[in-house]
Amino acid sequence: MLIIYEGCALLFTPLAKVKSLFILDTFHLGMLIFCALNTLIAYGAFSESLQHWEASRVSAVIALAPIVTLIAVAVVSVIAPDWIPTEHFTLIAIFGAGLVVTGSVAIALGKAD
Fold first, then answer.
1. 65-83: string of b/e by CB count within 10 Å (b at 16+)?
2. Taking a C-beta distance cutoff of 8 angstroms, is the pair 98, 70 a contact?
3. What is the pLDDT of residue 66?
4. What percent of the chain has pLDDT over 90?
5. Are residues 76 and 31 in the same domain?
6. Are both 59 and 112 inside the same structural domain?
7. Do 109 and 58 share a structural domain?
8. Residues 46 and 67 in one domain
9. Would you say the pTM of this structure is higher than 0.90?
10. Domain check: are 26 and 69 in the same one?
11. What's the domain range around 13?
12. Residue 104: which of 63, 65, 45 has the closest Cα?
């Protein structure tokens, strides 16, 4: 993962506009710092989880992350509609999310030994 991140950083650095960092207000700078720390903590937790669980179970839990994100966006759009517009989910999208959850649970539970 480190090699991938370093390679991407090297490739994208010439396209970066560093000046845009200096014009961020406090809220957006805080969000940028939060995202950076969140990524570091998440990958640290992922690495640690591989020490304690089988990789298939870790992958099943990670597959649920987008579902949690969609639920969080739906909740925030109800609480603070000015921040995030309401998301309209189709029946196919809800069915697909259900399949992801079902598959993740099936993999996480695995076979009884």
1. eeeeeeeeeeeeeeeeeee
2. no
3. 80
4. 25
5. no
6. yes
7. yes
8. no
9. no
10. no
11. 1-52
12. 63
Give the type of residue at 64.
L
93 pLDDT more than 70: yes
44 shares its domain with 82: no
**What does the pLDDT read at residue 82?**
87
Confidence bin at 88 (pLDDT 50/70/90): confident
Residue by residue, DSSP assigns the chain as: -HHHHHHHHHHHGGG--THHHHT--HHHHHHHHHHHHHHHHHHHHHHHHHHHS-HHHHHHHHHTHHHHHHHHHHHHHHH-TTTSPPP---HHHHHHHHHHHHHHHHHHH----
In angstroms, what CA-CA distances link 11 with 4, 6, 14, 33, 62?
11, 9, 7, 22, 27
On whether both 66 and 78 belong to a single domain, the answer is yes
Residue pair 58/104 in contact by the 8 Å Cβ criterion: no
Average pLDDT over residues 81-102: 86
Same domain for 45 and 1: yes
For the chain, how many residues are written?
A: 113
